[in-house]
Amino acid sequence: MKEVLKKYAKRYFIDAMGAMALGLFASLLIGTIFNALGMIPGLSILSTIGKGAQSVAGPAMAVAIAVSLKASPLVVYTCAAVGYLANSNGGAGGPLAVLVIAIIAAEVGMLVSKKTKIDILVTPFVTLLVGGLLSVWCAPYIGKAVGIISDIIAFAMTQQPFVMGILVSVVVGIALTLPISSAAICAALGLSALSPAALADPTLATGLAMAGGAAVAGCCAQMVGFAVMSFKENKWSGLVSQGIGTSMLQMPNIIHNPRIWLPTILTSAITGPLATCVFEMQMYGEAINSGMGTCGLLGPIGIILGWFGGSYPTTVGVMDWIGLALICFILPSVLSLLFSELLYKIKWIKPGDLTLPE
Q1: Confidence label for 310 from pLDDT (cuts 50, 70 and 90)
Q2: How far out from the chain centre does Cα 348 lie?
Q3: How confident is the model at residue 21 (pLDDT cuts 50, 70, 90)?
Q4: What values do phi and psi take at 316, rounded to 5?
Q5: Helix and strand tally (H, E) in the chain?
């Protein structure tokens, strides 16, 4: 029973969720970058391309999920329509609706795939019927549930920015290092002032934007922290692979010695409230950026794109840039290294504990 649960947990919460984040990256996030480039005089055509990419986020997520589940081609192609319906009907919870509904539609579609002589009709019919009905009947409720959670996060963040700064930074940072998708979680919860929940109710925008800033802080603390504190073992290749790749590479070492996780977690508990209370770092880019950290530098890029995307409510000053550098790069490097050295001295961490597997 335990092995079965592990199998399906990996299938749905690791493989499918990770694929969903890639689908978001290949549509919404890359479209946002094209939109930003389109603001350069003479490059307005890139904005047209970017908006087109953003508009197919639902289909891109659903197709990526179906591929991760190793669905047959007809199921994969039909999931494009399922993703559009789930995302459009899911409102504030569009990405989460796509994750749930695309998984169910793909799994049911695979039950009938290649089982009849008229597979070309039966498979897409069943896949779309299941996905379509769930999109109409269930997606709006998923959206409402996510909206309630987003409301709670937004309200709590504005009332208790210090405590919530710690909580969001630590939790999202841990999710980034675990074999699940922090980017997908941030997208599903709408941790940005541009999320559907914030756009529908502007009173939520500040709280969700602050939560997005705290999430960026936590993710950067994990990635930069592990990259710097393991430099002795992993040298430049480890610095790059963890610093702009993923801190998930350390999971085998964390399982072997969980104490190596303490420096980056403690760092995120410091940088999170600094982001919310001192530097007021807020996410006005796409919510998926909030969970990317320094992966491809997309966390800081999301903050910067939000500054110059036309919706950031205040003028960007020197302190904004200083705060970005401190929260995303400098403090994670210094604090994680300091904490790790302390743990080396008390022998909670030993040489070799942070060496990446070959």
Answers
A1: low
A2: 31
A3: confident
A4: -80, 125
A5: 20, 0
What is the secondary structure of 63-96 as a DSSP string? HHHHHHTT--HHHHHHHHHHHHHHHHHHGGGHHH
**Rounded to a whole number, what is the distance in angstroms from the first to the last CA of the chain?**
32
Dist. CA 229–CA 17, nearest whole Å: 29
Give CA–CA dist 14/55, Å, rounded. 25
Amino acid at the residue 211: A
Going from the C-alpha of 155 to that of each of 19, 159, 207, 211, 221, the distances in angstroms are: 31, 6, 6, 10, 25
CA-based torsion, 151, 152, 155, 157: positive or negative: negative
- Does residue 314 have a pLDDT over 90? no
281: Cβ contacts below 8 Å, ≥ 6 apart: 213, 216, 217, 275, 303, 320, 323, 324, 327
For residue 184, the model assigns a pLDDT of 81
pLDDT at 222: 96
Which pair of structure tokens corresponds to residue 86?
Answer: 């789930």
Asked if 339 contacts 263 with a C-beta cutoff of 8 angstroms, the reply is: yes
Per residue in 97-131, pLDDT (tens digit) is 999 999 999 999 999 999 999 999 999 999 999 99
